[in-house]
Amino acid sequence: MTTEKLTNETVIRTVSGDQHEIIRNIIKLYIPDGIECDPTYSKGVFYKGAGISQPKYKFDLFPQTGDTVLSTAEDLPLDDESLNSLMFDPPFMAGFTKPKPTGLMGKRFHGYPYVSHLWKWYDQCLVEFHRVLKKGGVLVFKCQDTVSSGKNWFSHVHIMNQALKAGFHPRDMFVLTAKARLIGANHSNQKHARKFHSYFWVFKKTKCYVDYTIDRHTEVRDPQPRKEK
Ligand SMILES: C[S@@+](CC[C@H](N)C(=O)[O-])C[C@H]1O[C@@H](n2cnc3c(N)ncnc32)[C@H](O)[C@@H]1O
User: Whose CA is nearest to atom 13 of ligand 1?
Assistant: First the structure.
């Protein structure tokens, strides 16, 4: 007889349809003192009515609350190694070409003209977050893959690779599922699956203790030259 259960409601799971549940679980597992800094605070929806305490430091390029300080995330007005934790929820789409955000999505998520620009900015932010976090500090990075010019850009993969380069260890990953999404007018000519999920990466500023060197593990070898018969 087994004592194991197929499901256990008290267990912390990787997948949820509720972002507040994910954030609470990340805090429970990795940041017991709560989130200290949010450089993309916006209106602070993450912390509203969800039993999640407000961060001490709130920044945004377009501050929307009286206590949010204007700053760009890749150049924070904070000392080296001064933070224990940081929550980052940057724009995930490219294609906005105006210098200032326009429209509903633009106002809320202000973006970059090309995905390559967006990713380059993510890279700069990762380096900056590594600078301001203490050793052992935790970075939560919310991200979503995106489609540009009909191509899938798997941002969560790029972010993990760059986080490794910046000196972080990928500690955990949560997937937020959506019940509904806006669907474009030409969806009848669908070329790829509409994304109904986003991610919360949890990175720790510490030596990476998983060997992600793919070449070292791969079974694929260069084919041996065939012997002539
Ligand atoms: C998805 S929203 C964040 C929503 C937020 N997590 C909340 O709970 O309300 C992204 C935010 O990033 C901000 N942003 C865009 N570019 C930025 C930059 N370079 N530096 C700092 N914030 C930036 C936008 O102004 C926007 O408020």
Answer: 40
Give the residue whose CA is nearest to atom 20 of ligand 1: 72
pLDDT at residue 20 above 70?
Answer: yes
101-114 burial, b at 16+ Cβ within 10 Å, e below that, comes to beeeebeebbbbee
Check if the beta carbon of residue 73 is closer than 8 Å to that of residue 128: yes
Cα-to-centroid distance, 122 and ligand 1 (Å): 12
- Evaluate: CB of 112 within 6 angstroms of ligand 1: no
Q: 15-181+192-204, what's its fold?
A: Rossmann fold (3.40.50)
Q: Where are the domains of the chain?
A: 15-181+192-204
Residue of 42, 120, 126 with the most ligand 1 atoms within 8 Å of its CB, for mutation = 42
Question: Of 54, 31, 34, 36, which Cα lies nearest the Cα of 44?
Answer: 54
Whether ligand 1 lies within 6 angstroms of the CB of 45 is answered as yes
Instruction: Work out the number of other CB atoms within 10 angstroms of the CB of residue 206.
Output: 14
pLDDT digits (tens, 9 = 90+) for 126-183: 999 999 999 999 999 999 999 888 889 999 999 999 999 999 999 999 999 998 877 7
Q: Which residue's CA lies nearest to atom 27 of ligand 1?
A: 42
Q: Which of 156, 140, 132 is nearest to 29 (CA)?
A: 140
